[in-house]
Write a structure and sequence with these properties.
Number of helices: 9
Order of helices and strands: EHEHHHHEHEHHEH
CATH class: Alpha Beta
CATH architecture: 3-Layer(aba) Sandwich
Strand content: 5-15%
Distance between the termini: 8 Å
CATH superfamily: P-loop containing nucleotide triphosphate hydrolases
Largest sheet: 5 strands, parallel
Number of domains: 1
Shape: globular
Helix content: 40-55%
CATH topology: Rossmann fold
Strand order of the largest sheet: 2-3-1-4-5
Radius of gyration: 16 Å
Bound molecules: cytidine-5'-monophosphate
């Protein structure tokens, strides 16, 4: 069983992916971390985010230990990730490892922007998780404050809108629901409500 969760920043897809993975006992890959870690490698090496050769080398060189640093989840890295994620060569460099993860014999849960459209077009279940930009900005502000970042709601809302526009407008694997994805709008749902809806969609598909 492959569960593909896609959607814009702070839609709740990551939380749902973790909870669905725990519920079904499946491994989970947060694919946003791959782009975040690629961006971090470039920034740490004082390279430009649009240096294609260095970005591809960074993507190819990702190691498991790269994903544990707290800084990866921060605001700056989300923004930088969406810049490197628009480079087709970077996306190409990350496809094989994501597909290999999806093809694990026991199944898998993956969340990102292009799981249902590019990485696992034959996924058993595809859910496109969305919510209003305002609801997402509120959640992201709470999350970042919880991690000790001093954040301003309006700045976060601007970030989210900018990131949505960049992720949706890019030519390669833009953010969009797969034709056969179920849309789950979490604007008015708490975590329990969103999980119940995601479980209902999944149970209907398996
Ligand atoms: O989901 P997260 O906020 O961690 O993703 C960071 C950025 O990585 C996104 O804004 C998007 O540009 C990129 N991304 C992507 N494809 C994925 C996952 C993330 O392009 N499958």
């Amino acid at each position: 069983m492959i569960i593909a969760l896609d959607g814009p920043a702070a839609s709740g897809k990551g939380t749902l992916a973790r909870k669905l993975a725990a519920h079904y006992g499946l491994p989970h890959l947060d694919t946003g971390l791959l782009y975040r870690a690629t961006a971090r490698t470039l920034m740490d090496g004082d390279a430009r985010l649009d240096d294609v050769a260095k970005a591809v080398a960074a993507a190819r060189g990702l190691a498991l230990t790269d994903f544990e640093e707290d800084r990866l989840r921060g605001r700056e890295m989300g923004e930088a990730a969406s810049v490197v994620a628009a480079i087709p060569e970077v996306r190409a460099a990350l496809i094989d490892m994501q597909r290999a993860f999806a093809q694990r014999p026991q199944g898998a849960v993956l969340d990102g922007r292009d799981i249902g459209t590019v990485i696992a077009p034959h996924a058993t279940v595809k859910i496109f998780v969305t919510a209003s930009a305002e609801a997402r900005a509120q959640r992201r502000a709470l999350e970042l404050r919880g991690r000790g970042e001093a954040v301003d709601y309006h700045a976060i809302l601007d970030d989210i809108k900018k990131r949505d526009a960049r992720d949706s407008a890019r030519a390669d694997a833009p953010l969009k629901p797969a034709p056969d994805a179920k849309i789950l709008d979490t604007t008015d749902l708490n975590v329990e409500g969103a999980l119940a809806a995601a479980l209902a969609i999944t149970e209907a598909a398996i």
